[in-house]
Amino acid sequence: MSAPTEQHCWLLKSKPEKAIQPDTFEYVTRPLPELKDGEVLVQVKYISNDPAQRGWMQKDADPKRLYAPPMNEGEIVRAYGLGTVLKSKSDKVKEGQYWYGPYGWTDYSVIPADKLLAPAVDLPGMEAASLSVLGMVSVTAYQGVFEVLDIKKEHTVVVSGAAGAVGSCVVQLAKNVIGAKRVVGIAGGKEKCDWVKKLGADECIDYKEADWREQLKKALPEDCDRYYENVGGDIFNEMLGRMKRYGKIGVCGMIATYNDRDNAKYNNFFEVISNRLTIEGFIVIDMMLQGKYQTAVENLGKWIKEGKITTDDKEYIVSAPISKCPEVWQKLFSGQNRGKLITKVEN
């Protein structure tokens, strides 16, 4: 097969302030640049869909306050993915190899070989393990459980976004690996809640039910020692009043606020003072900078082999052409996915 000469990709056309608009992205077909020394040509097979992407493109965001450089208008929408190297002008990467890298929303990518992150991990029964059970989402779960919250057997733990890629791993680490006394998940819909309980949670609260606050109170008769926050909004506000004195909250994400900052208004913050709560935000990049990332991956792999972390339903894969990238990505914000949302690129 002859090498491709053009790419189909999505550009960031207009940075959004609130909800994504029809003119936020622009779909284009353009020639691929000529391969230079040290570069590789990659055919993108899978694309990771992450809430963090929304923050990278936020209008008027102060770059000094961000943990990663913001996306610029006119560049390919940033995303991680898995792809096969079709051509290589690098001594470090061979043609035919399968790599994890920052390719973006595109079907083909010309990229410096030194920007590739790691060879893709092969795990039986998984299509894209490097994006799911052994990827950044699971290491993020690991980081919050062990490095930030320091969850112990005697703790009652609550996990919001418990049916998501990160939250579902947190549930299993807390209950199946550590053996926490009580693990309560929060998710949207009966099907998701049933799945979270199947993963090991003692209870799962359906936030789509009108009486979810009362259900949460009943599920926490002794309140909560450790709260893993993925959602924000009303759930975060409610959980501030369900924490034990000297409790800890690890803030991984606040997806309810990414498209609507009005959801980031809280009236329960005096709980932090009166109950001497500790709130700590964290980013998985720190695991890389501290040299802890690979250890986390190795431990996760060991627990998968031991059956403490399941790979069943951990990948929510949507097969779609590149032209549907925004549509698939926005499933994150409507709660349509269970587990890690991944786009399988149709060519």
Summarize the structure.
One of its GO terms (molecular function) is oxidoreductase activity, acting on the CH-CH group of donors, NAD or NADP as acceptor. With 347 residues, the protein is of the alpha/beta class. The protein contains ten helices and 15 strands.
Topology at a glance:
Elements: E1 6-12, E2 25-31, E3 39-48, H1 52-56, E4 81-88, E5 98-101, E6 108-112, E7 118-119, H2 136-148, E8 156-160, H3 165-178, E9 182-187, H4 190-199, E10 203-206, H5 212-219, E11 224-229, H6 233-240, E12 243-251, H7 270-274, E13 278-281, H8 285-289, H9 293-305, E14 315-321, H10 325-329, E15 340-346
Parallel strand pairs: 8-9, 8-11, 9-10, 11-12, 12-13, 14-15
Antiparallel strand pairs: 1-2, 3-4, 3-6, 3-15, 4-5, 5-7
Helix pairs in contact: 2-3, 2-9
Structure commentary:
Residues 9-116 form the Oxidoreductase N-terminal domain. Pfam families: ADH_N_2, ADH_zinc_N. Keywords: Oxidoreductase. GO terms for molecular function: oxidoreductase activity, acting on the CH-CH group of donors, NAD or NADP as acceptor. By secondary structure, the chain is an alpha/beta fold. The chain folds into two domains: 6-131 and 314-345, Medium-chain alcohol dehydrogenases, catalytic domain (Quinone Oxidoreductase, Chain A, domain 1, Alpha-Beta Complex); 136-285, Rossmann fold (3-Layer(aba) Sandwich), CATH 3.40.50.720. Helix content is 25%, strand content 26%. It contains ten helices and 15 strands. The longest helix has 14 residues, at 165-178. The chain starts with 5 loop residues before the first strand and ends with a strand. The mean pLDDT is 94.
